[in-house]
Write a structure and sequence with these properties.
The protein is an alpha/beta fold and about 375 residues long. The chain folds into 3 domains: about 140 residues, NAD(P)-binding Rossmann-like Domain (Rossmann fold), CATH 3.40.50; about 140 residues, no CATH class; about 70 residues, Rna Polymerase Sigma Factor, Chain: A. It is about 45% helix and about 15% strand. It contains 15 helices and 11 strands. The strands form 2 sheets. It has a 7-stranded parallel beta sheet with strand order 4-3-2-1-5-6-7, sandwiched between helices. A 4-stranded mixed beta sheet has the order 9-8-10-11, with helices on one face. The longest helix has 18 residues. The termini are far apart. About 45% of the residues are buried. It is an enzyme of class 1 (oxidoreductase). Belongs to the DXR family.
């Protein structure tokens, strides 16, 4: 049996991971962690029988303890609870599907406990890649990407020719506003931005996709995952979401991973790597597939992507500011406190005011996050 623990089990990636578990009889779930959705978490506990469950809020944890007192499961809370899930002794793989920089410390502790990391938490590498990747090497654990694009790159590199890699071609759907200009986005509402043309995702990441900030976060993440410079990563808009990403080698050869837009594929690949398992679902039909098209991203209209390149090239603590500012701005937009176009404006303002720390510690990363939130609170 392959044993796994999941941080963020009630979110989009977490629930799809459990769908993969349900379809495979040789995976056992030892621990689950969620934010506040204790109704769904209780259902998951009853279905998958973990020995440990964590909830962020202690009051919710107390309620869950009462609800599952008939089961043999320990319920913990807070950051200590997330870390306890991350280091759960029986788990071989830690799926980090939790959203936000809250995932950094549990991921670090999971690595130190010898767990392979199935990584779906962008913020961990965006803000702390300079800490995470050397630590994984030190402890001899694998960082297995779960994002569809990074999984596609990972799969395309399986020939073992990383030294011959020339550049990464990171694909993007372009989101619901592809082709629109800035003036056409003035009156965008929350409902408009949540209509992604191809993928079913959580609210925050769907907004990030619409602004192309998500693609910017993926650029920074790819830098650390694949040990390349930001200049070696080219974003290509591929509206059909058929090509999930590509790599170009020094001889000009391009290798791509194609498939239907289904997150269960990269999830399952990470859980079983290097083996492939049958996965039920739709397949590409090349007899009816009429075309695959490509476009250059519009970095003037969607200048959050341009800001991400700036943050990735500068490095240090600036990616933390980029991420934290976006996180807070998106939350404000979803709460209808700011307009859509203010999201990149807030990110730019926060990056401009920040004095970069060249090689931040975890404590400095988390402090930078809080300082960015405070600046936004006082400025906007």
């Amino acid at each position: 049996m392959k044993k796994i623990a999941i941080l963020g089990s009630t979110g989009s990636i977490g629930t799809q991971t459990l769908e993969v578990v349900r379809e495979n009889r040789d995976i056992e779930v030892t621990a689950l962690a969620a934010g506040s959705n204790i109704g769904l978490l209780e259902a998951q506990i009853r279905k998958f029988h973990p020995v440990l469950a964590a909830v962020w809020d202690e009051a919710k944890a107390k309620e869950l303890r009462e609800n599952v007192k008939d089961l043999d499961v320990k319920v913990v809370s807070g950051m200590d609870g997330l870390i306890e899930v991350a280091v759960q002794q029986d788990a071989e793989i830690l799926v980090t599907a939790i959203v936000g920089m809250i995932g950094i410390l549990p991921t670090i502790e999971g690595i130190k406990a010898g767990k392979d990391i199935a990584l779906a938490n962008k913020e961990t590498l965006v803000t702390a890649g300079h800490i995470i990747m050397p630590l994984a090497k030190e402890y001899g654990v694998s960082i297995l990407p779960v994002d569809s694009e990074h999984s596609a790159i990972f799969q395309s590199l399986q020939g073992g020719q990383h030294k011959a890699l020339h550049k990464i071609l990171l694909t993007a759907s372009g989101g619901p506003f592809r082709g629109k200009k800035r003036e056409e986005l003035l009156n965008i509402q929350v409902e408009d931005a949540l209509k992604h043309p191809n993928w079913e995702m959580g609210r925050k990441i769907t907004i990030d996709s619409s602004t192309m900030v998500n693609k910017g976060l993926e650029v920074i993440e790819a830098k650390w995952l694949f040990d390349v410079s930001v200049d070696q990563i080219q974003v290509v808009v591929q509206p059909q979401s058929i090509i999930h990403s590509m790599v170009e080698y020094v001889d000009g050869a391009v290798i791509a991973q194609l498939g239907t837009p289904d997150m269960k594929l990269p999830i399952q690949y990470a859980l079983y790597y290097p083996k492939r398992r049958y996965l039920p679902g739709d397949r590409l039909d090349f007899e009816t597939l009429s075309q695959i098209t490509f476009e250059r991203p519009d970095m003037e209209t969607f200048y959050g992507l341009k800001l991400a390149y700036e943050a990735g090239k500068t490095g240090g603590s600036l990616p933390t500011v980029f991420n934290a500012a976006n996180e807070r701005a998106v939350a404000m937009f979803l709460n209808r406190e700011i307009g859509y176009l203010q999201i990149p404006e807030i990110i730019a303002g926060c990056m401009e005011m920040h004095k970069v720390i060249a090689d931040p510690t975890v404590e400095e990363i988390l402090q930078t996050e809080q300082e960015t939130y405070e600046y936004i609170k006082n400025r906007w």
